[in-house]
Specification:
single chain; alpha/beta; Dihydrofolate Reductase, subunit A; 9-stranded mixed β-sheet; 9 strands; 25% helix
Length: 228
């Protein structure tokens, strides 16, 4: 029997016109120092952090809890200093030289049966590789994470991954940091892609919180719960 699925938190910083980044080779910093610290706090509260393979290749992130006091508090509570780092790749074409594999604690890569043939030798000694058959099914990912004891999963993108979690009704909370920027580039990555979202375009989510974090506005929604 699989364990209970984790609570799924989607987290993203977004421009006012819906972009996660611009189209330049350098990453556009949408958040400010206070919001980066807020995200670090959310990471410290998570059992695992998930990022899509495309974003992993593009951004080459480390996905760490940066505050030593927060890491110490996790250890004092009997947890690993860093959350489990998780990624998805149907093709299995992930560079073993990426910083993701060489920083923090445990790593886990979900892929297809065909992708595992590529990824297992590439990530030998760096990460556990889980083959999910012919596709990377998010429900199967959540079931497996639950069986591993993951109770809170933080999803940090990118747009394709956010779209899939929202379209499949698998997100329990959505946190959007709205930056006072307009990207205005058609080719820039967007927060979500076109999809058939539950309830259609007229469905309103329940707002949990709205507050300022410096010049950024944090919006927290419950995607599964309609507005009253």
């Amino acid at each position: 029997m699989p364990g209970p699925r984790p609570f799924v938190l989607l987290s993203a910083a977004m421009s006012l016109d819906g972009h996660l980044d611009d189209a330049s080779p350098e990453r556009l910093l949408l958040s400010n120092a206070a919001d980066f610290d807020r995200v670090d706090e959310e990471r410290a509260a998570a059992d695992a952090i998930l990022i899509g393979g495309n974003t992993l290749r593009t951004d080459n992130p480390r996905l760490l809890v940066n505050d030593p006091a927060r890491r110490a508090a996790r250890v004092a509570a009997g947890r690993a200093a860093y959350p489990l780092k998780v990624t998805l790749s149907a093709s299995g074409t992930l560079d073993p030289g990426l910083r993701f594999w060489h920083t923090g604690g445990g790593k886990l890569a979900y892929t297809t049966a065909a992708g595992a043939a590529v990824l297992r030798p590439a990530l030998d000694g760096l990460a556990d590789v889980v083959a999910l058959g012919g596709s990377v099914d998010l429900g199967a990912v959540l079931d497996d994470l639950g069986a591993r004891g993951v109770r809170r999963l933080m999803v940090e993108g990118g747009g394709s991954v956010h779209t899939q979690f929202l379209a499949q009704g698998l997100a329990d909370e959505l946190q959007l940091a709205m930056a006072p920027l307009l990207v205005g580039q058609t080719e820039a990555p967007r927060f979500v892609h076109p999809a058939a979202f539950p309830g259609g375009p007229a469905r309103r989510m329940r707002l949990l919180e709205a507050r300022t974090v410096g010049d950024v506005v944090l919006l927290r929604y419950a995607p599964k719960e309609p507005a009253p």
